[in-house]
Amino acid sequence: MILPLDRAVRELVHDGDTVAMEGFTHLIPVEAGHEVIRQGRRDLTLVRMTPDIVYDRMIGAGCARKLVFSWGGNPGVGSLHRFRDAAANGWPRPLELEEHSHAGMANRYAAGAAGLPFAVLRGYAGTDLVGRTATIKPITCPFTGQELAAVPALTPDVAIVHAQRADRDGNVQMWGITGVQKEAVLAARRALVTVEEVVDDLEPVPGQVILPSRVVTAVSPAPGGARPSYAHGYYVRDNDAYRAWDAVSRDRERFTAWLNAEVLGAPSGPDAGPDDREEQTA
Amino acid sequence: MILPLDRAVRELVHDGDTVAMEGFTHLIPVEAGHEVIRQGRRDLTLVRMTPDIVYDRMIGAGCARKLVFSWGGNPGVGSLHRFRDAAANGWPRPLELEEHSHAGMANRYAAGAAGLPFAVLRGYAGTDLVGRTATIKPITCPFTGQELAAVPALTPDVAIVHAQRADRDGNVQMWGITGVQKEAVLAARRALVTVEEVVDDLEPVPGQVILPSRVVTAVSPAPGGARPSYAHGYYVRDNDAYRAWDAVSRDRERFTAWLNAEVLGAPSGPDAGPDDREEQTA
Amino acid sequence: MTAADPLPFTADEVMTVAASRALADGTACFVGIGLPSTAANLALRTHAPGLWMIYESGTLGASPDALPLSIGDGELAETADTVVPVTEVFNYWLQAGRIDTGFLGAAQIDRFGNINTTVIGDYAAPKVRLPGAGGAPEIAASCGRVIVIVRQSRRTFVERVDFTTSVGHGSGPGDRERLGLRGAGPVQVITDLGVLEPDPGTRELVLTRLHPGATAEQARAATGWDLAVSPDLAATPEPDPDELAVLRSLTGRG
Amino acid sequence: MTAADPLPFTADEVMTVAASRALADGTACFVGIGLPSTAANLALRTHAPGLWMIYESGTLGASPDALPLSIGDGELAETADTVVPVTEVFNYWLQAGRIDTGFLGAAQIDRFGNINTTVIGDYAAPKVRLPGAGGAPEIAASCGRVIVIVRQSRRTFVERVDFTTSVGHGSGPGDRERLGLRGAGPVQVITDLGVLEPDPGTRELVLTRLHPGATAEQARAATGWDLAVSPDLAATPEPDPDELAVLRSLTGRG
To answer: Which one of A22, B95, B156, D216 has the fewest CB atoms closer than 10 angstroms to its CB?
Structure first.
């Protein structure tokens, strides 16, 4: 259940998989994304509401065949240049897009988590997304006759999220902004959770979300694994790194050099062994 | 915003209203139900997953015209005799029934809270509820062709729940088993929350649910207001009172005597004034 | 039971122990109040310390010290891995197919394991108005398998239920699939006399096991249809002393 | 702005102050990052201490000490009345119609206030690939009213958006109602030059207000359609010193 990150990614993430990595600004599983890059996964369908820099890197590294998303930007900074380059120019390979709104994506995860084939929302009406996205269809309320939008459930092969803590049985605890992580994990066939630390007991925390171990396939210690995003109670968001990414990612050569130096050149999961875990206080 | 219970019921609950009083075993708004009886409300459509003894009393007192529910028993004890007498014999007045499953009721509240006209679930298939309950209809997934069940949103005129605490602005805090209270409050046009105590600050508690004051029409102090059910952190469930209710409620005369002595004879909201509030620790 | 020589345990105790033994360690179990809760708590304290109990009030992974009277006792919330809203219990856990075993009781059960907990008699003018559906229809639909615990009598074991609150095997083979019900449905009906299981071909409930002291004739006499008896009719092993001791400490019977 | 005499504030500051003033105390506001967040935080610290800010990350009633860079900064969670899952933000709060005001930005906006944040050019072969929809389509649909904040230029203010990401007033009167959109849609488009509002009859955006130093000619020149000017064209009052001081303490500009 508790596995080093490199082994967990090797066992859980396969070429061609649909992979959902979630975390809404907070707790983004960046280190896990780097490990997917290091292991050279290809043809992934990447699912995520806000692709953020983790998907920008994975797309730039050539892992992705398709992106299912709702907002592809660098929050507070600007564009995701690797995403744009792939979407517009097919570099390093063409990227198919399936785009929704946040409301649609959140409801698609919720439907997946609930074992339903689709979700219903008041959404998309009058927008050009309706014509462009095949996974938006009208549905009529059988009681009132109102027309609403239906979207199909998301059921990824694997969900990857980052959390503050897990216990040794693999129960996961996260708090602060918890986004759609619970739904993503419950919607997926397999789930990998990287954590800041593994502890003996999960002392209850206000606002916590618990993922019981039976819905978690593997937990991998990855202290700092959400950087440059943040882990509430552990470290803050590195806004400078987000700003710096803009320049790095604008240029293919500079990006490639960065990737070689910072991801591919780095040892696989440096802090990922359970024995390397530092004690950190929440 | 913070009102004595008698005044809050007078202002928020009217004859003919659809009233949802929720609390799943825990935090049942019993004292508020008694106040509705004392004020002689009539023709109410009572909505509740588990009618429990609070609705048994309100039905026996003649407040209800219709019951929308999923399980009408005395938990761990047996039948609700006033409910049975009204349903089978029309005493003290006929009671129309609209029955669902728990899953259906929970999803009906969730649809109401979400501003949707209906909810979709895997439910009811093959049961005789489909033929008996007009508010169950088939719906087809526009992506897979699977047939599922649709149920209309619940949008009560007023929701009444009990919570541990509120602050002086009317923000409400509850914890422990919180059932469908959030959904019931959000689904309703008006919401009345009785609380164990009003405090200056809502110290965060693990597992808490917060109802922001803007969705709460009135808060009424009612210490002990969930008895004989319980308020986590305040007092435990009075199982003997549930057992004792069986004998009291079996017989119309004995019930009527009980009602006169314990509810109608009691002063309106004895503990309901903010100044009478006892300090209790959570 | 009417055995001449009184057994050192009651029929309810045998039922509860039999139900407890049906719960494998590490599985997830949707627990209702009464005998199911007693059985699950017994299993947790004997052979299945890793049994994961869900109560419909929202407590996931509860392990109460004492037996709860209701499905929402405070003890359940305090000992649970987590407490979730009722919507999540039904949507994210039950409907999503994450529960291995569901327990159901019955006011009536028929030869195909369909269950009535709504009304005896006509719906509009019932002889007995029962509590209704609660969580049962979806437990019956979506749990991996269902175990029914109910005392056996002609009044309860009927040819056809007056009202189908929860679908067992419908009218026979293929019905669950046609209805889109994803769990296996009732795989065991545990009574005070023995155990009935659906015939793999016809889906009709067949007596497959007898509790100590009970006879097939008793079981047939307590059944409102022509109850078939399995050619491989087995005997329920007696409750062992440890099971009885734990059970009695739970129920407060010495 | 190109006024000869430099004003003691920038065009962005006027925009932000104008947006801030549009937020009434006690109302609920769905806040996006950037100028909207700055405007809402300014309102909270000046005339609207009871403004209730929702960020789409799930923080309800946030009151951050500093201006967040993202919609999910830790500060938002720490100061919020409560943090809820993203599903609840969109379903229980936005879709249910509980938000009075939503802010939107735009890469393109057209004469009927429709907004494009998806692509410039053809969808299949875009000139510019933009971030996409995010929360905008449902904010535009379900907030009580929408305020758009966007710098005015011919590139942005176009006759017809290349892609309708979020519906404003569609093609004119009755379109929102036909589409089942329950909010009033864009009621103000606040630019660096002034404010545009939909004509009550035609729903076409009309220049109704000019910021200090700006002219109607400038606004018309910065608009890709034949921008109508209201006969009651008003002037935005200058930001007052307190507003500027608070704004600059927020943005770190002295």
So the answer is: D216
